[in-house]
Amino acid sequence: MDRPNELAQDQEHAACSLDASHVLTWEEIANLAAEPGKPGETLMNVVALIARRFGADVCSAYLLEPDRANLVLAATLGLRHECVGKLRMAVNEGLVGLVAEQVRPVAVEQVRTHSRFKYFSEAGEDAYQSFLGVPLIDRGVLQGVLVIQTVPARVFPENEIRLFTEAANRVAHIVSEARTLDRFIAPAQERLWALARNMWWSWDHDSSGLFRDLDPPRWRQLNHSPVSLLNEYPLAKLEARAAELALHSRINYAYRRLCEYQDAERTWGARHAGVLRPRPVAYFSAEFGVHESLPVYSGGLGVLAGDHIKSASDLGIPLVGVGLFYGQGYFRQLLDRDGWQHEEYLETDTTQLAMETAIGENGRPVVVQVDTRHGPIYAKVWRVKVGRCDLFLIDSDVEGNTPEDRVLTSRLYGGDGRVRVHQELLLGVGGLRALKALGITPGVLHLNEGHSAFAVLEAIRQRMEEEGIGFEKAVPRVARGVVFTTHTPVPAGHDRFDSDLIEEHLGPLREALSLSKEGFMALGREHPESDERFCMTVLGLRLSRHANAVSSLHGEVSRAMWTGLFPGKLEDAVPIGHITNGVHVPTWLAPQMFRLYDRHLGTGWHLLSSEAKIWEGIDNVDDGELWETHFNLKSSLIEFVRRRAVKQAARRNEPRDVLQQLERVLSPDALTIGFARRFATYKRANLILADIEKIASMVNDPKCPVQFVFAGKAHPLDEPGKRVLQQIAQLMRDPKFSDKFVFVEDYDINVGRHFVQGVDVWLNNPRRPLEASGTSGQKVVLNGGLNLSVLDGWWAEAYDGLNGFAIGTGRTHSDMNLHDTRDGDDLMRVLRDEVIPLYYHRDRDGLPRGWIQRMKRTIRTLGWRFNADRMVMDYTTKCYVPAAGGTSSDIRLRV
Questions:
Q1: pTM (predicted TM-score)
Q2: Over the Cα atoms of the chain, what is R_g?
C-alpha cells in the first residue's frame, strides 16, 4: 500500500477514534476565559486548545464585523500573529467567507483547486494545503468562522467534520462574549451597528438623529438607511467623524437605551399577556411597512402591519411577524411630462438591509419546502429585528428552484393569479413551516387579511400529524386559536382562484388533509355546493373563531357582505366584530412635537399614550408655542416638496425656468391641504376638481390663498386610477394652478411622514362606505393637523363636530354620479364657509386662535383613541389571550 493511502487511512482511523466528550470538555471550556476583560487571550486559548485536539497545524478564529458583511482575523495559532485585527475579507471572498455566506461547514483537501480560494500573502499560509471551516453560532446568530488547516493534503471525513462542528458549538458562547468586548472593533462602531441592525432606531428620534448627523446629505440620498450609511464609513473615518461631532456620549446613551428596552421585563404584555410568552402570536401579513429603507410594503395594509409589530414590541407582547421578502419591492413611480405614471423595478441589495439569515434549531440557515403538483418550491428565511419582536421574511430566490420559481417573491402585488397563489402559498404554508424550523410554536395565528389564510390549513395538517386525528377534529382545535382581520369592503378586493389553479398548487396539501377536491374547494366558497372560485377571505372567516373588521362602520359593511357564510343568522348576529386601526405614535410624531409633548404632557407620556388623561395637558400649551411648532413643520414640508419637485423635473429634462419656478413653489403662509394615498378611483382624488373654476378662484384668492400637495401611486394595471393621477399631475402645468398644486412622485413612508407632519388640513374623500378604516388622517392628528373627511372609516366614529371638518352627513345615494356630485358640492361648501375663514381669522398677535383651539381638541380627543398601542391592547385582551386559552373567566349564556 502506498504512503498517501496509508496516511488517509491513519487520519480516518484517528478521527473515528475521537469521541465528542474528548474533543472539548465543559471544564476546559470554562477555563478558556481565565481572565475577564482580555478577549484576545481568551480567543487564543480557544484556537490553541482546538489545534491540539484536532492535530492541526493552524487554527484560526474569524469574527464578523458589525456590518456583518466582513470578517476579521481575531486569533490564530499558525498564521502570522501581526495579521490579527488587520486581515479582513468580505463574506463573499475566500473559503472563510464561503463558510459565513452559506452558514455550513466547508472541507477542502487541496485549497488551491477550489474556485473560492483566495490567497492572502501577508498571512503566511503558503504551506497549508487543507482547510476545514465551520460557522460559530451563538443563540441562533452567526458570530464568525472557526478554521483548521494542515500542511499535508488531508481528507476530512464526516465524523471529524461533525466533531469539529460540535467543538465550535461548544465554544461559540465564549467567542461571542469575547466579540462583544470590542477587542478588535471600536466601541462606537460596534454600538452604531447594533443600533442599525434593530429597526427600533426608526422610531427612536435620538438614534435616528445620530445617523442623520453623521452625514445629513448622504443620509437623505441613502433613503435614511443606517446600514447603507455605515457601510460607507471605514473605522478611521467613523471615529474621526464621531470625535468631530462629539457623538460618543450620544452613541453610548442610545445603545444603553436599546439594551434597557430589550431587557425590560415589567411591560404591559408581561402583566396582561403572560400566556403568550411560551407560545407567541404569529402575525401574518403580505406586506410590512416598518421603514422606507426596508421596501417590502406598498401602502396602508403594510404600514398598519409595521405599526402593529412596533406597538407589540413597545408593549412587550410576545409576537413574531411573518411576511415575504420582495427582491424588487413595490415599483418606483416615475411621471412623464404628460403626467402619466410609469413603473420601474429595481433589485434590492440585501447587504444594505437591516436583516440577516434566519438560523434554525439545527444551527443551519432555515430553508422551507412547499410541494405543488409541478414540484417542490424552496425558500430561505430572513430575520429582521423590530425592537423586541422578530420579523421573518420568506424569499424564494434560492438555488434548487426553477428560474420561474426564483422570482416568485420578487415583486409585491405583481404578476397574474398563478404568481399570487404561489406567493400566498409560500406566505401561509411556508411561513408556518419556517416558524417550526425556528423552534417557534405559535399559540395564536393572526391573519392580517386573506393573503395568508393557507397558514390555517398547514396548522391543521400539523395538528393532524402530531395528534393522530382527522380533519374534522383538528379544525375546531386550530380555529379557536386563529384571529382573522378583514380590511376590504370592496368585493373585487378579495383574492379568488380557479379550482384548477388551487389543485395545481394545493393538491399535495389537500391530500395530506385527506380531503376531496370538492371538499377542499368548499372551504373557500361562500356557498359550499356552488361552483364559486376559491376565496381567501372566505377561508379565513370559515377557519377562525375571532374575526374583525377595522372600524365600526366597516364592521357593519363586513357583516352585510358575509351574511351568506352564516346561514340562519341575522346580519347583526354575524360573528365579525371590529377593532379600529391606530397608528404608532413614536413613528409618525415629528421630533419637534415629541419635545413639545415632553414639556407639557410629562416625560414618558408616550408610554401611556393610550390613556385619555395623558392628553389633557395639551390644553395647557401656549397657543403661540403650538402654532410656531406647527409652522416650522409646515416650512420643512414645503422645503421637502420643493426639493422633490425640482429633482423630478430635472429628471424629465425640464427647462431651467421651470426648475427655478419649482424652487419657489408654495408658500408657508398659505393654507396647505394634503392628499396622499393609493390612487384607486373610489378614493376620488379628483373630487376637488369637480368645479374647476371654483377651485381656481379659491386657490388664487390673494387674501386667503389655498395650496395642495398630492402624492400616491396607482396600481400598474389600474388604468382608470392612472388617469385620475394624471389629471392631478397635469395641474402643475396649468398657469392657474402651477404654483398651487404639486404632485410628489414615488409615494412611500418618507413622503407620507413629511406630509402628515406638515400639512394644515388632511383631505380624505372616499366614496362611503368603501374606506375600511384609513390611518393617514390619524397620523395628522398627532402632529396637530386637522382632518377634512367624508364620514367613512375611522372618521365616522371620531368626528365630534369640533375636532376637524366633515364632508356630508354620512348619507349615501344609490346613484353613484349623484353621490359624487353631492359630496363634491359639500366639500367646496365646507372649504369656503368653514375651513378657510377659520384658518385666516387672526388676532392682534397674528394667531388663528379658533384654529389652534380645534388643533388642541383633535389632539386631546383623538390622540389616545386612534393609536396603535390602544389597538394592540384591544387585540391582546379581546382576541389573543382568549384564543390562547388565557382568560380566567368566560361564562356562556344558554340560548
A1: 0.87
A2: 30
